Amino acid sequence: MPVSAPTFADVTSSEASLKRFLHGLPGVDQVGAEARAAGLGTRSIKTTAKAYALDLAISMVDLTTLEGQDTPGKVKALSAKALRPDPADPSCPRVAAVCVYGDLVAEARSVVGDGADRVNVAAVATAFPSGRASLEVKLADTRDAVAAGADEIDMVIDRGAFLAGRYQQVFDEIVATREACARPDGSHAHLKVIFETGELQTLDNVRRASWLAMIAGADFIKTSTGKVQPAATLPVTLVMLEAVRDFRETTGTQIGVKPAGGIRTAKDAIKYLVMVNEVAGPDWLTPEWFRFGASTLLNDLLMQRTKLATGRYSGPDYFTLD
């Protein structure tokens, strides 16, 4: 349910006022949220709608590799796949972004190029995945990625600070990171704020983190790093979608949502798209406002897409393994 319109300058004027606001948000009925998410997850769609949903989901993927063994060659190959997910079918849409560590941004950029219709390059920053570093280190990490050509920055909040109730510290770090996303031309890399919802313990905390990040200037709110289980879940994403919907009703500002981690099949992705439509509304059903953070999801989407077109499944090695 929407909260009454706050004056955010007052809300963030002190640790105490920020805490009062966040703890004054309506509580989440966990049983109700889980039941609604389960109900939405049972919706079926017709074949023509499924074809549209598969292409839409492909266009929403942030194709991701975030491993210590990542190499320039792997990132370049992944970036080429982002541009042409199915080389045999030029009608297949591009993905939304390639997501890599900051030191590999230039490698991805060298493949996706700089055109207006390019695949974006996203970089994880701010001591990903733990978020445990000094603010100076986090901001340097962000500035380096932006300078290398990152279109988007996926930052992680300090969950320890959040769970200890140091909301002002988390707020200030998001504000400072957004400022570090600035480019010389006055634009800024889009900022996605990762909560690591598997460590936030309650859906009430997910709602509080969502509002905290949005007030601080996040362009997107994101569930997880993919390094902690559970990662993205339907109930958690439901709460975040309610938050962005209510935030727009309150402020007029639209914020994106990105579930990440554990979404591996086309069937799972379609459940999320149904939820987006039913909870936030069709305005969020574009890559501008909704993303999937995933590595293996794309291949299943491509296999299901081929099945609809040909009537048969391709072998598991028909598409490249990421």
From TrEMBL:
Signal sequence, start to end: none
Entry annotated with the keyword Ligase: no
CDD domains with a match to the protein in the record: DeoC
PANTHER family: DEOXYRIBOSE-PHOSPHATE ALDOLASE (PTHR10889)
EC number(s) recorded for this UniProt protein: 4.1.2.4
Descriptive protein name: Deoxyribose-phosphate aldolase
Keyword Lyase part of the UniProt annotation: yes
Keywords from the named record: Lyase, Schiff base
Associated pathway: Carbohydrate degradation; 2-deoxy-D-ribose 1-phosphate degradation; D-glyceraldehyde 3-phosphate and acetaldehyde from 2-deoxy-alpha-D-ribose 1-phosphate: step 2/2
Catalysed reactions listed for this entry: 2-deoxy-D-ribose 5-phosphate = D-glyceraldehyde 3-phosphate + acetaldehyde
Family in the record: Belongs to the DeoC/FbaB aldolase family. DeoC type 2 subfamily.
SMART domains for the chain: DeoC
